[in-house]
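To whoever is on call:

I kicked off a structure prediction for a single chain this morning and the downstream step that reads the tokens threw a length-mismatch warning. I double-checked the sequence; it's 708 residues and nothing unusual in it as far as I can see. Pasting both halves so you can look.
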Amino acid sequence: MYAPWRAAPPDAVPSEGVRLTDQPRPGPAKRPRTTAPYGSWASPITARLIAKSSIALGWLQAAAGQLFWVEMRPLENGRSVLVRRTLDGDVVEVIPATADSRTLVHEYGGGIYALHAAADGGITAYFSEFDDQRLYRIEVGGPTSGLRPITPAPPEPRSVRYADGRVTPDGGSLVCVRERHEDDEVVNELVMLPTDGSAAPRVVASGHDFYAAPRLSPDARQLAWLSWDHPRMPWDGTELWVADLTAAAELAAERRVAGGLDESVLQPAWSPDGRLHFVSDRSGWWNLCRHEGGGDVTPLAPLAAEFAKPPWVFGLQNYDFLADGRIAATFGEDGVEYLGLIDPARPGIAPLSCALTTFSTLVVSGVHVAVIGGGAARAAAVALVDPESGAVHEVRRSKTVDIDPGYISAPEPITFPTSYPADSIVGPFADEIGGAAGMGDPVGLTARALYYPPANQDFEAPAGERPPLIVMSHGGPTSAAYSQLSFDIQYWTSRGIGVVEVNYGGSTGYGRAYRERLRGNWGIVDTVDCLNAARYLADRRDADPTRIAVQGGSAGGYTTLNALTRHHFFAAGASYFGLADLEVFATGGTHKFESRYLVGLIGPYPEMAAVYRERSPINHVEDISCPVIVLQGLDDAIVPPAQAEIIVAALKKKRLPHAYLAFPGEQHGFRKAENIVRSQEAELYFYGRVFGFAPADEIEPVDIRNLD
């Protein structure tokens, strides 16, 4: 239910990226403005620009003084490309133009490649090929004809998958996660294989439902890894294991060193001196810890802050080790992200004064800290940060156009009051978050959001008009919205439409207790928080209460559909591949990774089947009372098209205004440029017709049934 590429379209060529001009443009100090209704403003941030001017960046690694990462490119049909920055500073592709570096383990993938640097400086890359899901080997900088598979062909297409690998120091073996799809069963395990492909992978750890993060000690004598079992997700409870690695490449003396049913341990890593580190939420926050041997664990920077993000994908990394023994780490505190340094000799972290304010990954490269980071007015970029001064040198930006800051809306973090109907709240936090019966009864709770007001230096609205508002519900639902420059948001605000991204109860970034507000209460807490965010802004006169839409993708689509079926508040809705039928999801209608996710979010099935039915929007479609646009990828294995089609059939039966756009070849999240353009423009066209404004853009009309 997580859509990693929902709002991250890219481009195909290296460039300097998006630049928010620091100097004023020539001309009068105060630009004349045209008066026009909200929603009708002309904007340079077009859907086609979004699709053609961006690259999604991820999975940063370093080897032999060079940086490596993966770019997702819609202009190449969503192809994911492993690239590197050479010692000369050039950005070049590592894989052939015919290759697509992407894994489908857990369907969401991540941890796509592994590197080995030889003593002579040569680098070998091993990556998962999307087409067949085999592992391939290529000598970095060598001829692309040297690409060759090192794992056997699967018995069925894409039925054997690999992720999150690491290569032994001698370069002879690789250990990674393997996922086998055989006879309607999915088996996850850890395997080791020779890097020359001379033998088939051999299982070294099995028996748990899931594995992640196999990490070799510097001397290759120990292996650490994570495991967890249904019905837990990795943010609920994981176990950190360590075993000795014998000369025969077998594991011995396995022992659990951290984690459990109610402790989420993430991102294990060995320091250069051979000490095991990891992130744990045993304090109520994901904090960085060091294993001291036996059962002893030392928190290195105990804070009410998060040093990790939920691992929807493999290969996330938020800390690494500098040569002088310090640890560079990113952390979020009260919704704001920082880069800092930890001296292991004394607890605490010293934040760096750094221009970047959001981060997705970090790795040490020589004397620099390399990150993928950005900010509210700064596009995400691969960047090198000086660990002493905090100075930032950008290597590769995710956006490739110049945008005047006069068209950019700055987010306002808001904290708003919220409460929930006592007779609907269940689970271990019922006493904490259940107010008196009835909506709106105050119980002293608050929730969080980022509000983006309309912003366009060329336009102003008629006096007294209040803008439309789009309430965005993020996917996951165990995820969060961050104040990272997003053209998907600026597309709306630069046209005169406000946006609020709601970090409802259950979102990450605010500690385990906030995250677990949603436990047993999905469909209630998230939905009510979205309503209360909109009410808060309407009460402040920042939104027209008659023109508020709710929008979301995947799990955010579920919240959207739930808001439309359970409450008569919103004037329109847009569901991107939204989950509509919880029972289908719980009874084999999705992939293994999330197949028991709803046990924590709703409760055990079939024991609580009645609750599943009551919380499923599909069973309340007769209560929808406003126009809805539904967008769906026809190859989606996570939320299959049948769920969207049932919603559309119900809208048709009720003769409600609606539109349905189905995209062949798209999976869970849209990757192809033409589909990104069409979906963005179609949503704008839909709101224009429903809310009564005429977009300035030339848009291919959308077939909206029953509008008249």
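Update from on-call: the warning came from a stale cache, not from the record. Cleared it. Sanity check on the structure: The CA atoms of residues 177 and 190 lie 5 Å apart.
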